[in-house]
TrEMBL record, chain A:
One of the protein's GO biological processes: nucleotide-excision repair, preincision complex assembly
UniProt name for this protein: General transcription and DNA repair factor IIH subunit TFB5
Keywords (A to Z) from UniProt: DNA damage, DNA repair, Nucleus, Transcription, Transcription regulation
Native source organism of the sequence: Spinacia oleracea
Subcellular location: Nucleus
The gene coding this protein: LOC110783489
Taxonomic lineage from the root: Eukaryota, Viridiplantae, Streptophyta, Embryophyta, Tracheophyta
SMART domains associated with the record: Tbf5
Automatic annotation (TrEMBL), chain B:
Subunit relationships: Component of the 7-subunit TFIIH core complex composed of XPB, XPD, TFB1/GTF2H1, GTF2H2/P44, TFB4/GTF2H3, TFB2/GTF2H4 and TFB5/GTF2H5, which is active in NER. The core complex associates with the 3-subunit CDK-activating kinase (CAK) module composed of CYCH1/cyclin H1, CDKD and MAT1/At4g30820 to form the 10-subunit holoenzyme (holo-TFIIH) active in transcription.
This protein's record includes keyword DNA damage: yes
Subcellular location: Nucleus
Organism: Spinacia oleracea
Annotated protein name in UniProt: General transcription and DNA repair factor IIH subunit TFB4
Gene: LOC110798364
From TrEMBL, chain C:
Keyword vocabulary terms for this entry: DNA damage, DNA repair, Nucleus, Transcription, Transcription regulation
Gene (name only): LOC110796840
Species in which this protein is naturally found: Spinacia oleracea (Spinach)
A single GO cellular-component term on record: transcription factor TFIIH holo complex
Keyword Nuclease: no
Entry protein name: RNA polymerase II transcription factor B subunit 2
Amino acid sequence: MVNATRGLLISCDIPMAQFIISMNNSKPSNQKFIIHVLDDTHLFVQPHATEMIRIAIAEFREANTYEKPA
Amino acid sequence: MAPIASKLYTDDVSLVVLLLDTNPYFWTSSSSSSLSFSHFISHVLSFVNSILLLNQLNQVVIIATGHNTCGYIYDSSLSSVSSSISANESSGDAKMPAFCSEVLKSLEDFVKNDESLSSVDAGNGVGSSLLSGSLSMALCYVQRVFRTGPLHPQPRILCLHGSPDGPEQYVAVMNSIFSAQRSMVPVDSCVIGAQHSAFLQQASYITGGVYLKPQYLDGLFQYLSTVFATDLHSRKFIQLPKPVGVDFRASCFCHKNTIDMGYICSVCLSIFCMPHKKCSTCGSEYGQAQSDASTLSGQKRKEPS
Amino acid sequence: MPQVKIIAKNFIDMVASLPAVKLDMLYANPFICEAILRSLPPLAKKYVLQMMYIDAPIPAKSLEEWVLPDGLSKHRVAIDRLIQLRVLSETVDRKKETSYEMNKKFQINLQKQLIHGGILPREPMASSSVILPSSEELEIYALEQWEHFLLHLISSNQSEKLTNFSSSMMKVFQRGLLSQRDKEASRLTEYGFQFLLMETNAQLWYIIREYIANAEERGVDPANIISFLLELSFHETGQAYNINTLNEVQLNTIKDLSDLGLVKLQQGRKESWFLPTKLATTLSVSLSDTATRKQGYVVVETNFKMYAYSTSKLHCEIMRLFARIEYELPNLIVGAINKESLYNAFDNGITSDQIVSFLQQNAHPRVAEKVPTVPENVTDQIRLWESDLNRVEMAPAQFYDEFPSKDLFEAVCDFAREYGALLWDDSKKMQLVVKGELHNEMREFLRRQKQ
């Protein structure tokens, strides 16, 4: 019997995928959000994780930039 | 060298330089019996108006090819309708009555001038018109347009010709054809005379233009608007008359006769019908015997030391 | 720039969507026929020219023979446009063959234009009775008016002059561009930002389109306004035309047009007249793909610095959208493009393409002839910064696995593919991911397959 799961498909590049996986691993087990790791560039996660992932990526991006003090 | 077509300018803005054949010998001869000059002019003026109608920025320049001289008849970017404000860009669509009479007046002046310049002994048969002169004038105008900056219309030359080819103009015409090819200006030709014109066939073939000899001269306007009003951008998409067979015969440089077989200078490739001792174009001497050649080359070899 | 085409095409679409009766009435004016002809794609223009003196209907097959195989798609586009504008009418006879015939009024008017040229319904006034401003003064006036209008549009407190437009008209214009939130100053919407970066003609067309669309509500027939506008574009720039040659509708419109900078109204002792500016006469040019030949003013250097030789406040505001303004000098605005300012712009909905094409089109003549106009490292970096924001794509989806057989898996894959909803599949593991919206249909499909 075919099994259907509702969720969110994430397609990105390989480093981003690894980042999300590591973020998932660092979370306590009741807050893990990855349902399946499909392949190198695709992940299937729980639907509520959208905002969390977006914020985490933004923080990661800001952490890598230097702003000249105005 | 080649003009950079700006992406910001619309695709179909064109500059058409019209070369009108006003050779009196042709127009009064029997070859032009089906079309009188006044009818011809009315077809041409309607065609010019239709080009100016298609796009606000289109430009048309008319150059008349006479028997002894050539001259500018009309330039649509210079015409101003009202006298108070001089040459405005947007007055390209001149009111018809003013533009017609302007053209007709200039043509009249030109023909009178042409006649006055003709020498006494020009009565042998149907003379040819100065195609090379008007082609050169057209190309000079196009070069000036290229230098006005990055935004300019795409130029092309349309030659409405009827007189027979004058072999004495072969060299000059070929030179202008090659410079047109270099600047990527197509030369279209519409032949209204009785016979095909080898010069124009070659011109259209080399520069990538269209050559047409209409069958029914009464419908000249329809031929012009169907084939020759196509702008350069749309030519990739529309079926146009293909060249049937181009007459590539050259004329010799010494007597200006059309020849099939001849002698060629090995230095500058000029064509002669009879063997010469010395090339008139580049001045190189040939026809020397073997013994002379070896002493000459011997002398030459001594120089570098 | 594709946006002019989109906006202007929308104007022509608006004309095309007028009811057939109104459109035919519009074609009674020869200048409108000319303006419509000029707005067609080049292939369509050729067809009209060729068919101008042919009275009988032409079979569609003959028309197709005119085109090379490469051009068939353009041919279809041209024919569709012509039918949409009712220039060509299509008839299908009993043998199921289509043929096209040209609109008679359109044809006759164009023939007249061809042979007699266009005669405007009004003549310019003699120069003895009017004092004409020079063409530079007129152009400066037009630009000033337009910029005041734009500034007033964006933020009512920034411009000094008040416009004649009633506040309700301004609200209509601002409808798509500004968003009003309670207790907050109005902010520019995403479309508002894009609007600012468009070039003048596109902006003009947008405003005019809104104006005309709104005309019906005010009880004015839009066809009249359209015909007046198109007629205006055939007048001569800088020539005075007497006001008493306008009818009532046109009189009302002309006051609004002078606010936009399209015409200048002047009054003498006995008469008053209007002068069309360059903005008006080049209006119809941009109906097709052209851009204005305005002089650019921006120089972008490889060190990401931007120099704008302009004094206009509007230009400063526009540049503030995506660059950090460092100095404002009497004739120069100096700014720098950096990541922060660009992220700001991207947050507001501007795309990197718009920024790059704005820079390219407004390039100062000194750099305009260089290839490329804007240094490649700058354009590449702008695009990279944009793509950095979009590294991850998320889509609500359904995940299906544990298929009993490969056939069922293939069938489900094909089913999803037909709807364009297949996002990911793996045939080895027999798993697939489908767009979330398709879930109900998928359930139905699976139920049917089981039987």
